[in-house]
Every structure is written in C-alpha cells, then in structure tokens.
Amino acid sequence: MSTMRRPSGLVPGAALAALLLVASTAGAQPLRTDLASYFIFAMRSANLKNMDLLSACNVGVNCPNPAPNNSCGSSSLEDSFFADGSQLAADVTKFNKGGASMFQVFSNLLPNPANVTIRQPGPGPNGTNPLTLPILGDLDGDGNPSCGPACTPDFGDVGVFCGLPNPAPLCDVTKPILVTAGGDCVGAPDAQAGNAQCDLPPGTYGNLAVQNGATISFDGGTYVFCNVQMGRNVNSLVKNATTLNVTGDFAVNNGSAFGEECGDFTVNAFGVGSVSFGRNMSVTGFFCAPERNMSLGHNNDLTGRFVGDVITADSSDRGHCCGGSCACVDEFSPTTAAVGATITLTGGCSLTNVTGVRICGIVAPITFQSIDKVEVTVPVGATGMCPVEVDSAAGTFTLLTKLTVS
After folding, report:
1. Helices (H), 83-128
2. Which of 169, 398, 399, 401 has its CA 20 to 30 A from that of 152?
3. Rounded Cα gap, residues 283 and 224, in angstroms
C-alpha cells in the first residue's frame, strides 16, 4: 500500500493549499468515533512533539479540559504534518512551534493559531471545528460518562471501546520465559527447537524477558504474561494472529522490530503501569492500555492503533493506521478524458472504503477497486470542468483538482 508522504518545504496558507489535494468545505467530514479510525486515542492528554501522521486516520483526546493550565484534555504538537483525511480532536490543541500542517482540527481552544495551517478549515475560530466531549459515550452502561467532572476517566468505557477481556486474565508468576540470542525458549516447550529462536506456543506464563539480539516467534492465539521486557535489536514475529494480555509493564527497546503487518499483534495491558517503546524501531500492532502512560519513543515507524491514558512521543515518529472508514484520494489520471474513458484514482489510505464516485455530480461506475487504486468510467452527461467526489461511510472527499471532460 502506498502512503502519503510529508511534502517537502511546507509553507503556510494558500501556497500550501496549492500543493495538496484537499477536501472542499462542503464535503467536510464530521468527527469519526469508530475505534478503527484512530491511530492514537488518549483519555487525558497526548504530547506528540513533531510526529507525522501519514495515513487518513485520527488522533483524539477524550476528556474535556477542567481548568486553565491543566494538561488534561489537551493535545500538544510541534511542526507536525497530518495527512489528507486525518482528524485531530482535543479540547485544547497546542502547536508549540511553527510549520505544523493539519487536515481537520476539532477543538474548542487553539492558543497559537499562527503555528499551524489547517488545510480543511472548519467554521470555528482559526479554522477549527467545534468539539463536544467526551468523545466516547457510556459504553459500559454503568451510568458514568467516559470522562466526568474534574477529569475523571471511566476506564471501563475504554475497555469496551477496545474489546478488552473482562475480567482481566491472570498471569502465572511460576512460569517465567527467557529468550536468549540464538537460543530456544527457556522455561517453556519450544514449538520448533533448534532453529536459533524461541517459537512460543500460546498459554499463560509469568514474566517474558527477551535479551538483546534475540528472536521470538509467537505461534498465534492468546498469551497471558506478567511483565514483558524486550531488549535492543529484538525481532518479534508471529505465525498467526496473536493477542498478548499483559498485567505488568510492557517495554520494547531500541532498534527492535515488533510485528510486520496489521493484525499480527494485539496487546492488551490491564491496570496501571507503563507501555513504552525505544528509539529507531518498527512497531506494528493494536495496543490498548486504558489506565497507563504510553511512550511511543523516538524516530519510530508506528503502524496500527495506540490507546492509553496519557500518550507521549519524543520526536520524529511516523504514524500509519490500519483502517477506518475514511477514503481520501491523492490524485487521479488522466486529468483530461472523454465520456466513457477510464480514470484511475490513487491514494495513501485504504480505497477499499470507497462506496461511490461522482464526476460532475453524476455517478461514475467503478470498474476496479483495490486498497490503493480505484478505476471509474467517465459517465454520460459529464462535461467541462468536473469536480470529482469520493464517497465513504465517513463522508465525502472532494478533490481540489477537477477533471476536464472533453
């Protein structure tokens, strides 16, 4: 799948808009609230420095801000770039350095608007869209809001949002696992002994310790651990979709690779504690830790979904999501075509979400559709300079560039 890259030499205002394909105000999407659309979902705050989000997905903070100078209910960024189709939502949204470029922003307070260009401006002050909080409803049905007065989260609602097992599974402290570089599993039967890695079958274990330079392969299914500690340059693989239920801390250190494809790993971290990643890593998975601080590290490629209480990222991280209901388009070709001709739309977010295409307001039949390409036929009745509109469950994305129908 191709991904949208951050344009070089970002500039503010109209000059930036001329460089990018953006949705028209009339086609603006409301805030998405489905879990699959979120790359980051924080209960109380998200401090992401200069993270670049290169997919059409969301970053959201659930709680309202209870008082000035309180960090709860805030997102804090620097010169970040969020791709077309993405949404940033927080009660208070701070851009601490100039040069940021966002697509849609849902916020009730934007203290430093000069530091950000909003490419899909909303009706509110400085181009924001109004935001009603909390984002989540009372999903567990206990009568308590997902974030109440004075910034009091109901973590049970987030658990339902993520689909966490309830009650939390218990680990077995009497069954620790050690993985050494070039070695088999120590403390559990190895599913494929003698191949210079630990091939771990599903089950309930104690602490998992993976030493520097080691490789661990999960057979697939459900695992329960106490603490998970992975050293530097560790390679974590799966043979089939794997769920790790962790009751203690979860940490993966510098230079490691955790997962390869969306759907490889689901990591559920229960109760208080931490989830942390080091530097210069590749991380792919769905991570849910409602009550925890989550540190996304530095200079990492992060793919999937990250749900926590307070989420931080050091600098230079690159984010990609694994789905959602949005469908945005980067470009189409040719830009001049006759009725009956085929035009090809391409994009960096999943185009399998496309439910329809219109040219000059007329339905354009879809003849081919894949994750990064949609082919349509220019319909009878289209003429002149035609807007191209792409429909999905999340709304309509209208390209700035028009098709010339000859």
Report:
1. none
2. 169
3. 20
* Contact residues for 325 (Cβ-Cβ < 8 A; gap 6+): 32, 34, 36, 37, 353, 392, 393, 394
From first CA to last CA, the distance across the chain in angstroms is 32
How far is Cα 310 from Cα 333, in angstroms, rounded to an integer? 43
CA-to-CA distance for 126 and 30, rounded, in angstroms?
18
Structural tokens at position 342: 């085929």
Signed CA dihedral, 194, 196, 200, 201: sign only: negative
C-alpha to C-alpha distance for 61 and 223, rounded to whole angstroms: 29
Residue 226 to residue 126: CA distance in whole angstroms: 47
Q: How far apart are CA 240 and CA 11, in angstroms?
A: 44
* DSSP line for 302-362: EEEEEEEEEEE--SS-EEE-S--S-----EEE-SEE-TT-EEEEE-SS-GGG--EEEETTE
358 with 366: CB under 8 angstroms?
A: no
Contact between residue 75 and residue 94 where contact means Cβ atoms under 8 Å apart: yes
Give the model's pLDDT for residue 323.
65
**List of E strands, 26-110:** 38-49, 52-53, 58-61, 74-77, 81-82, 87-89, 92-95, 100-102, 104-106
User: Could you write out the DSSP letters of every residue in 338-350?
Assistant: -TT-EEEEE-SS-
Q: Which residue, among 53, 108, 41, 43, has the nearest Cα to 77 in the 3D structure?
A: 53
Between CA 319 and CA 322, with CA 320 as vertex, the angle to 5 degrees is 145
Task: Give residue-wise pLDDT tens across range 30-69.
Answer: 898 888 789 999 999 999 999 999 888 899 999 999 999 9
For residues 117, 130, 109, 88, the Cα torsion angle rounded to the nearest 10 degrees is -50
Give the pLDDT of residue 397.
Answer: 73
348: left (phi over 0), alpha (psi -120 to 50) or beta: alpha
Q: Tens of pLDDT along 105-142?
A: 999 999 999 999 999 999 998 999 999 999 999 999 99
Q: Residue 353: its pLDDT value, please?
A: 79
Quickly count: other Cβ atoms within 10 Å of residue 281's Cβ: 24
Q: Give me the phi and psi of 13, to 5 degrees please.
A: 70, -145
194-224 residue pLDDT tens: 999 999 999 999 999 999 999 999 999 999 9
> Is the pLDDT assigned to residue 296 strictly greater than 60?
yes
- Could you give the CA distance from residue 270 to residue 279 in angstroms, rounded to a whole number? 24
